[in-house]
Design a protein that fits this description.
By secondary structure, the chain is α/β, with parallel strands linked by helices. It contains 8 helices and 10 strands. It has a single domain, classed as Spore Coat Polysaccharide Biosynthesis Protein SpsA, Chain A.
């Protein structure tokens, strides 16, 4: 496999045999598969003053998730108290550093699961989609990224100029790094925790999502895209700044092009993962 062009498994949420017509939904089938394979699942939620949004997020996380970590970025509202009242078993982790990237890296370091799922606290990413992400991992992927631009995905939270910018970044990523990503600047991802040691994340801001997507691609991991719908933030104002954060993404892509990347070894144990 070319290090710059691993297989991209589009619509890889086919963790059931496609020739087997089963009336059960993926959400109902997945717990059975999890009991059979025993991967522990951690959901990481960065949060800064999201008390008003957490009631729309935490209760929707599937009950078969093993661990929910809320990474608190020094909130001055009732984020921590609301999280504990909604989810008594939640782990509260204090963010180290500033920015979404720093929050995610703090959560990754604290997580105990074999599978990690990234989820936003503002209600824009739907916890009901978690089975599709985890299902694609169980089907053979190492890293699963959501796409707003696959059939079945979408967004109500992107202006025309942000869509155009994202499209430009997608084309740029294909030219520089290969692969066939349909979405680049989206942070709904799930992956096996062991890959973190090989992609060595160091981003502090929103560019962390682009950094992850490019580093797993260049490292040769088996990557899957699944459709995802990005909703509007429910309450409050986003910390995303289109021009400054877009510039950070562009700088990240240029840096990644000239950064030496190791090839991924056998993704799990001694066995390389075959395509789905």
């Amino acid at each position: 496999m070319n290090a710059l062009q691993p297989d991209i498994l589009v619509h890889a949420h086919t963790f059931q045999d496609p020739d087997h017509h089963d009336s059960r939904s993926p959400a109902s089938t997945l717990p059975f598969l999890l009991r059979s394979t025993h991967p522990r699942i951690s959901v990481i939620i960065p949060a800064l003053n999201e008390a008003a949004n957490l009631p729309y997020v935490l209760p929707r996380i599937p009950d078969w998730v093993d661990e929910v970590l809320l990474v608190d970025g020094n909130s001055i509202d009732d984020t921590v108290e609301v999280a504990r009242s909604l989810c008594p078993g939640i782990r509260i982790v204090q963010q180290q550093g500033r920015g979404k990237g720093a929050a995610l890296r703090t959560g990754f370091a604290a997580a105990t699961g074999e599978i990690i799922v990234m989820l936003d606290a503002d209600g824009s990413t739907d916890p009901a989609e978690i089975p599709a992400f985890v299902g694609a991992l169980l089907a053979g992927a190492d890293f699963v990224k959501g796409s707003r631009f696959l059939q079945g995905g979408g967004t109500s939270d992107m202006s025309f100029h942000r869509k155009f910018g994202n499209w430009c970044f997608v084309i740029f990523s294909r030219l520089l790094f290969g692969g066939h990503y349909s979405d680049l600047c989206y942070g709904y991802n799930a992956f096996y925790a062991h890959i973190l040691s090989q992609i060595d994340l160091d981003g502090d801001g929103f560019e962390i999502e682009t950094q992850m997507n490019l580093r797993v691609l260049r490292a040769g991991f088996k990557v899957a895209e699944v459709p995802s719908f990005e909703a509007d933030r429910i309450h409050g104002v986003s910390n995303l700044k289109t021009i400054p954060d877009g510039w950070r993404v562009l700088k990240t892509m240029i840096k990644e092009r000239f950064r030496a990347h190791p090839r991924a070894g056998a993704p799990r144990g001694d066995q390389a993962v075959d395509g789905i």
